[in-house]
Amino acid sequence: MFENKNTSNTNISELGEFGLIDHLTKNFKIKQKTTVKGIGDDAAVLSCDSSEEIVVTTDMLVEGVHFDLSYMPLKHLGYKAVVVNLSDVFAMSAEATQITVSIGVSNRFPVEALEELYEGIHTAANFYNIDVIGGDTTSSKTGLVISITAIGRVTKGTAVYRDTAKETDLLVVSGDLGAAYLGLQILEREKKVFEVNPQSQPDLDAYTYLIERQLKPEARKDIPKLLSDLEVTPTAMIDISDGLSSEILHICKQSKVGCNLYEDKIPLDQQVISTCEEFKLDSTTIALSGGEDYELLFTVKMEDFPKIKGNPNLSIIGHITSEKEGVNLITRGNEKIPLIARGWTSFKK
Ligand code: ADP
Ligand code: MG
User: What integer pLDDT is reported at residue 4 of this predicted model?
Assistant: First the structure.
């Protein structure tokens, strides 16, 4: 469906491992003052200030498990692989500074394919102002594996954890939910159509936002900054990679609290609503279980309500209760239903 830009096929062996690394990383410029030594030695060297703490996080993406190259252009894959890692750094309320990139590739991939992948990585590194400071390159028997480690910095003692939400806190989420999952469903559907009829021209106009959320997600770097500008310190925070319900359960379990989530407060884009109608899906279930939204979910003290209410980037979707009250969804019909990690065993009978 999508074409990768380069059409020539240079075998990786023509460059050799070191030639390949040089070739792929020659355009990466150092931007962060804490990067003392980047790519090229046995290890990168970073400086650190005693008033700060370092956060480190890794995510691995495996072809056929996390992505399908028949509709995921390699450039987007590179970009998304960076974004999913940075999202974890921002969820600690930290500033992302460096990444390492490790890839396992089979000889099915020509050098030009890896150039596309690295163009996406490069674009993300520039957009988020981070340095690529190293990685590893190995061969794989069949598919593509990409593992990224992200490093960030935070003022000592100000990292925001998952286990510190308190009773009466408000539950807040950035952006809107469910779109990335629906984007994936649209792409899967078009792939099947394409397999039957390669001449078909998909009309995806009604789904542009959904597809963009799946293929080119962004990490919410702006939210920790927005909160700090509003003089709001989140009491707990997590990023939404697996779906709203699973992330709420993480916060509640680790903080030893309960929660009431209000169905009518869950933020949904118009395309999510219309596509759910078209596919006869329940939009609440999609938002709760869809995943890959990369929004931030956090709690704030009740007294911070006036500072965040009405902010177009933020939705107050519930409040924290005592542990014994459990983790519940309050439906539009004012029913109280225990929230489960996988909403697919639909609570709406
Ligand atoms: P070593 O043999 O010491 O592990 P390598 O030859 O694997 O070193 O790597 C040489 C340099 O290139 C190191 O700085 C390493 O971090 C970097 N590097 C290796 N592979 C990649 C990659 N896929 N992307 C970015 N940097 C890489
Ligand atoms: Mg190595």
Answer: 54
Per the prediction, the chain carries an average pLDDT of: 94
Amino acid at 243: G
The answer, yes or no, to whether any atom of ligand 1 lies below 6 A from the CB of 103, is: yes
Question: Which domains does the chain carry?
Answer: 16-155 (3.30.1330.10), 170-338 (3.90.650.10)
Is 0.90 surpassed by the pTM of this model?
yes
Question: Which of 22, 26, 27, 39 has most ligand 1 atoms within 8 Å of its beta carbon, as the pocket-test mutant?
Answer: 39
Dist. CA 168–CA 312, nearest whole Å: 23
Give the three-class secondary structure for 111: helix
Q: How far apart are CA 77 and CA 86, in angstroms?
A: 14
Q: Which residues contact 3 (CB under 8 A, 6 or more apart)?
A: none
The pLDDT score that the predictor gives to residue 345 is 40
pLDDT tens digits, one per residue of 32-65: 999 999 999 999 999 999 999 999 999 999 999 9
